[in-house]
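We give this protein:

***
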Amino acid sequence: MVGRVAVIGAGSSGLVCTKICVEEGLEPVCFESSNDIGGLWNFKHVLFIRLIYRSLVTNTSKEMTCFSDFPMPDHYPNYTPNSLLLQYYRLYAQHFDLLKYIHFQVGQFNLRPDFPVSGQQCWERYF
């Protein structure tokens, strides 16, 4: 039986977590509240609350910002604007075929332990 893993959010950490789960033979189910990946770096998906500003640029170089197994394209500037960082996350998700594990526009929900008699650790999702 393959273990299923809930991944909350499809930002940078959620994408990497989803990829690692697949590599380890697990079945990730990534829940994303918006209609796109990128988390806080997705300027467009937050309508009423701006968590970043339109002209935001990373304060670390692209070599330090990129994932260790997926370098940023050579033509990207050394300090990456948020729009290119979001594009990079999309390239990463496509390259590792992660989109099929992501459920978009999932409303807020909670998880609670649901440990059956067998002793297996399970979680129940509820709204």
About this structure: The chain has a mean pLDDT of 88. Residues 5 and 28 are 5 Å apart (CA to CA).
